[in-house]
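Tokens for chain A. Residues wanted.
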């Protein structure tokens, strides 16, 4: 009986890893440079395109409502299945929108992209709470690093495949075939994830009663927690700063530098390989010096990336772009797991979903502010000169990252 239970638990824990691999690979490949290519196809302006590329961070605010809804759901398992299905159905529509006339397809793309990202963000707190309730304290400390590693290996391979497809079709004037093929591949990836979602993943733990507090009572819990408030503060500055480096860089390389798409994907793939290698290295480093210091190192590398972007122009990209592309993904090997650990280790188990959702929501509000400021600055620079000083955009992000690093030092990272 014990062995049967042990096998069932191992199968369930592995199911979360597999679902994360397929669903999150589909989600994150439908972002960044690929969305920049879509905005180019539909003829959106640079400032509007920057807003679209920032949906992933701007709509984090919806996690606040998703975490509250999950906490009050009578049947949490059905809640998780229902909203997970919504965004997974919408995602392929984003890439299939070019099959429609441009006047309609552009609108469909924007609406589908917004709705898909909104659905993903709404269900994310419940998804994290689901996994934590099933595995936390029952698996090795390397479980989350292994999960991130599996995701990155698959993401690197699929993203490179997408680059080859885009270069062979979209970049050569056959956009309809290219985007349609990408949409089909995304549908297959999500089909596998739906199978694991519905058939393999165990129901969420029921150790804690359904939350009955009002919306604002729940939201204020993390804000009143002096320990967790420090995490909220640095996370807000971090998300606002990233709007000037992360999302804008994806647009900058396609729409400003006008680099060949497969060239971009080639170097980003090599960078992702370095990220895969860095994940276990950062995990081992964390076991010696702690995740707090590892996260600070990761942020320092992001700051360095911003500096390199400042000097990457049409005249210097031959030297600078390979360097910045190799470096840019590496910090995520530290930040992906490290920022997650900050939250897991500093929130009460019975309030996991609302703590996670409040963190994401405040981060989303900060991202909205950062994206609005970034888009305004881009618009001003574009109008004022034939050769806009876009290095100023990255400069603002660098200042924000430096402030985040200072705030991180005040945040705790001890088990409660």
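Reply:
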């Amino acid at each position: 009986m014990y062995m049967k239970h042990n096998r069932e638990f191992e199968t369930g824990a592995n199911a979360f890893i597999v679902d994360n691999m397929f669903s999150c690979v589909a989600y994150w490949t439908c972002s960044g440079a690929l969305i920049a290519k879509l905005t180019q196809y539909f003829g959106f302006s640079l400032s509007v395109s920057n807003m679209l590329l920032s949906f992933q961070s701007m709509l984090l605010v919806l996690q606040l409502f998703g975490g509250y809804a999950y906490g009050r759901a009578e049947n949490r398992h059905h809640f998780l299945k229902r909203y997970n299905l919504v965004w997974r159905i919408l995602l392929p529509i984003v890439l299939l929108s070019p099959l429609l006339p441009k006047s309609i397809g552009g609108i469909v793309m924007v609406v589908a992209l917004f709705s898909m990202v909104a659905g993903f963000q709404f269900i994310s707190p419940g998804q994290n709470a689901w996994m934590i309730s099933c595995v936390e304290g029952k698996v090795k400390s390397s479980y989350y690093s292994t999960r991130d590693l599996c995701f990155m290996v698959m993401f690197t391979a699929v993203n490179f495949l997408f680059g080859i497809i885009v270069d062979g079709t979209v970049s050569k004037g056959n956009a309809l075939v290219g985007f349609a093929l990408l949409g089909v591949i995304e549908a297959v990836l999500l089909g596998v994830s739906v199978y694991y979602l519905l058939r393999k993943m165990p129901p969420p733990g029921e150790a804690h009663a359904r939350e009955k507090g009002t919306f604002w009572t729940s939201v204020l819990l993390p804000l009143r927690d002096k320990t967790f408030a420090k995490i909220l503060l640095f996370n807000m500055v971090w998300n606002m700063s990233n709007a000037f480096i992360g999302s804008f860089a994806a647009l900058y390389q396609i729409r400003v530098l006008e680099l060949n798409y497969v060239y971009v994907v080639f170097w980003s793939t090599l960078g992702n390989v370095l990220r895969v290698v860095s994940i276990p290295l950062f995990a081992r480093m964390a076991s010696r010096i702690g995740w707090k210091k590892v996260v600070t190192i990761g942020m320092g590398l992001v700051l360095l990336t911003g500096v390199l972007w400042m000097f990457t122009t049409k005249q210097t990209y031959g030297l600078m772009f390979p360097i910045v592309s190799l470096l840019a993904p590496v910090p995520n090997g530290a930040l992906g797991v490290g920022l997650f650990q900050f939250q897991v280790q500093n929130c009460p188990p019975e309030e996991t979903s609302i703590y996670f959702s409040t963190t994401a929501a405040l981060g989303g509000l900060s991202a909205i502010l950062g994206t609005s400021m970034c888009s305004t600055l881009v618009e001003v620079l574009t109008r004022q000169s034939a050769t806009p000083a876009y290095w100023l955009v990255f400069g603002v992000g660098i200042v924000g990252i430096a402030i985040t690093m200072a705030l991180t030092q005040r945040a705790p990272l001890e088990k409660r």
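The chain is about 80% helix and 0% strand. Residues 81 and 197 are 7 Å apart (CA to CA).
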